[in-house]
Design goal:
The protein is α+β, with helices and mostly antiparallel strands. The protein has five helices and seven strands. The two termini are 35 Å apart.
Length: 208
């Protein structure tokens, strides 16, 4: 899982969170700690991403948390500061990465050397995952761009799997395992089995 590496980047700021960001996913954040305000300012100034990792040990606020080794780059798309000292932003997931080395700055911000994981090959959504598509179609119809960034790629195995992994009621550790998978089809297989065992999916014949 997550074993194929591509280019390396140095000194990428990390934002450990109690959530998992997937490529293409939207991440709304309320930023108030000084270290992350400075991080966001630098990312906006230089048009660079920061890294989002699930917290393995620790908390979002206070002492630096220990992040999982595999995370996702986040690119700031929108930001607003209507209240001094409180930055509201929306970031979008980019490439997955593995942490190679990390160090903690004096202000508590974690900087990491990362290796980008090779981008996952996409494929048209197989018919056998029709239940996954129908559920996501319902969610898109009800919530649209509040949850997802357009375009809505309902024929894409990678897009459908990532979006379902974001919105289904899964433990954070399970989302992390799904993020680490190199295969979009393997991710869909797991999600399809979860839907089959739950009351969330439209019935398997395609009827609502």
């Amino acid at each position: 899982m997550g074993s194929r590496l591509e280019t390396e980047q140095r000194d990428v700021p990390l934002f450990p969170l109690q959530t998992v960001l997937f490529p293409g996913g939207l991440l709304p954040l309320r930023v108030f700690e000084q270290r992350y305000l400075e991080m966001a300012k630098g990312c906006l100034r230089d048009n660079t991403p920061f890294g989002v990792c699930l917290i393995r040990d620790g908390a979002e606020v206070g002492a630096p948390a220990t992040p999982e080794d595999i995370g996702c780059l986040a690119h700031i798309k929108h930001w607003d500061m209507q209240q001094l000292g409180l930055l509201q932003l929306v970031a979008q997931g980019g490439r997955r990465f593995r942490i190679v080395a990390r160090r903690i700055r004096a202000d508590g911000l974690i900087l990491a050397d990362i290796a980008l994981l090779v981008e996952q090959a996409d494929a048209p959504l197989p018919e056998k995952f029709g239940a996954c598509r129908r559920l996501l179609e319902r969610i898109v119809a009800d919530h649209g761009e509040r949850l997802f960034a357009a375009p809505f790629l309902l024929d894409s195995s990678a897009w459908v799997g990532a979006r379902l992994a974001e919105v289904l009621p899964l433990p954070a550790a399970a989302r992390q395992k799904l993020l680490e998978l190199d295969s979009a089809l393997e991710r869909l297989e797991i999600l399809d089995r979860l839907l089959a065992d739950s009351a969330l999916a439209p019935n398997r014949s395609g009827q609502s």
